[in-house]
Amino acid sequence: MKRILSRRNLPISAVLFALGAAATACTSSDEGATNADKPKSKACGGEAFEWSAVDRRAELTGLAKPIHVKKDGQHYTAHIKSVDGRFYEAGVTPAGGGKRGDGDQGPKPAQVMASLGKEIGADEPLAEPGEKHMEDKDGMFFENATGDPAGHYFAYSYIELVSGDYRYTCGDGEPSEGHVVTWTAAGSGTLPCASRIEDEAFAGEPDLAAVEHQAAQASCPPGSPALRDPA
Predict the structure, then answer these.
(1) What is the DSSP letter of 3?
(2) Distance in angstroms (rounded) separating the CA atoms of residues 20 and 29
(3) Residues 23-59: pLDDT tens digits?
C-alpha cells in the first residue's frame, strides 16, 4: 500500500472559487488624551472568536484510469485527474463577500486560520489563504518506480478539508462574521484491488478509508477485495 501525505501543494491544479479578505486590527483611543497618552493599537486575541458549523472530512479529489500490471515488478505511471471538477483554494470570506475596508474591524485572514487551527486541535498550521491544493490543470502523475506484483490497482488524490463559520468580536466593536475553507493535509496514493482496504482512521481525524473505498469502486474489477467495506 502506498499513500503519500502532503501538508502543502500537490502538483495538480486550479480553483473552485476565489476567496480572500483584507482586514485590519482594531484600535482604541481616548479623545481627550494626547498622542503620547493614547494606547497603542493591538489585535484582538484568539479568545475573540466563536466557531460554528465546523466540518472536517476527507474528500476524493482525483482519480487515474484503472491500472493493470501484467507482470510482477512492472513499472507504471498513473495520470491522476480531477474528479468532477473538485478544486479548492484556501480562504476567508467575510459575511456578505468582498473585501473589508480600512475602517472595518474584522480579523486578518491569518488570525482566522490560527483560531480555527486551535479550535480543531490541528498539530500543524492550516493551508494559508490563497493556497491551492492543485497547481496543474493537467492533473498529476503518480509514478511507481519500484514495481508491484501483477494485478489491478487504483491511484487517487485526496484532501482533508476543513470548513467553518466564525463570529469575531474586537473589544467593544461590532462583531464580524465570515466563512472559512482550508485543509489540514492533501495527498495521493495507489492501492491494489486485490487487498481489502484497512480503516486506519484515528479519533477526530478524517476517514481516508472511505475515500479509498470510493476510489476503488470507480476503478477495480467486480469481485475485488477492495470493493468490500473497509476492515
Answers:
(1) E
(2) 29
(3) 222 323 333 334 444 333 455 544 589 999 999 999 9
Distances (CA, A) of 103 to 26, 29, 43, 109: 9, 15, 14, 16
Helices and strands (DSSP H and E) totals, the chain: 2, 8
Cβ contact 188:155 at 8 Å: yes
What are the pLDDT digits (tens) for 141-188? Answer: 888 877 789 999 999 999 999 999 999 998 777 889 999 999 999 888
Concatenating the DSSP letter of every residue in 125-185 gives PPPPTT-BSB--TT-EEEEEEEEE-SEEEEEEEEEEEEEEEEEE--TTSPPEEEEEEEEEE
Residue owning grid cell 475596508: 101
Count the residues in the chain: 231
State the cell numbers at 229: 467495506
73: left (phi over 0), alpha (psi -120 to 50) or beta: left
